[in-house]
Specification:
The structure holds two protein chains of two kinds. By secondary structure, chain A is mostly helical. Chain A has one domain (about 40-219). Chain A is built from six helices and one strand; from the N terminus they run αβααααα. The two termini of chain A are about 35 Å apart. Chain B is mainly α. Chain B has a domain at about 45-95. Chain B contains two helices and one strand. Chain B has helices at about 1-20, 50-90, and one strand at about 35. Chain B starts with a helix and ends in a 5-residue tail after the last helix. The model of chain B is unreliable at about 15-30 (pLDDT under 50). Classes of the chains: A mainly alpha, B mainly alpha. The interface between A and B is large, with 61 and 46 residues.
Chain lengths: ~220, ~90
Amino acid sequence: MVKKLFVPLVVVGAAMFAYAPFMILAAPYESTMGLVQKIFYFHASCGMAMFLASFVSGVGSAAFLFTKKPWADRWAVAGAEATVIIGLLVLVTGPLWAHKAWGVWWTWDVRITATFVMWMTFNAYLLVRRYGGPGSERLAAAVALFGMANVPFVYWSVNVWRTLHPKTSVIPTLQPGMRGTFWFCVCAFLLLTTVMVMLRSELEKRRQELDALYLAAED
Amino acid sequence: MKRSLMLALFVLTLAAPALAQTPPPSKPAAQDGFVPVDAPVTGQDTIPAPRLVAIAYGFIWVVIFGYVWSVRSRLAHVERELEAVSRRVPERK
């Protein structure tokens, strides 16, 4: 089922990703920020995709901690790596936008700092997995749970603290010309994230098979 | 005297991160909602927006394709190793 879905997902996701810039070019300009606001379409979509990937990793980790099933561990690793990659996109595109809109590349704003902490948590997950030695999967799973627990905090922080970052009200109040483009980009990124996680999960499955074969060879 | 100096130093140490931070602009741009217009804002443009937008989109494309390519090549490597090892390991009955 998953393998059958993979190719259509790749095709649709890549097509949407390729078409998105044309929609973004056609979308109206924002009155105070002008052209640079168009970074928003990919920046915010990346943010949503990062949340999705972190949920995959967190839920996979929780399932792995309780069931010790290899499939759960595969999804946890795949989700964590996707979170780090997409998180990097969020953390790079954000300052590019901020440099023009706020006049600074970086400020220790609560949303930005919380996103950075979340990204570092998933980096820690990957480091534990890479250098933690045997049994590090369970320790890493606990780290991923902390990473996932950050998501509501990152999302809601702009509404609680005084911040420079646009609030969550921006998305529901988008005007028609902007709304369609934005949700198109969100769908493209969610599809791409799904493809990335599936591909990475397949790699982990093969690695688990290889480890089992090496163990069989030793016996 | 020494005590007050230590206290002042302590307070300054605590306040340093806040003081070091760049002061935010007095009126932040579009925090609650975006207002669309047909043409971009004109005027004195000291920071080139097209370059920033191009870098942002270019970076996203490069990272996404780079990552997919990296996973594909790692997968191909593991597949080759899997094949080599499975030839060495006899079928377990």
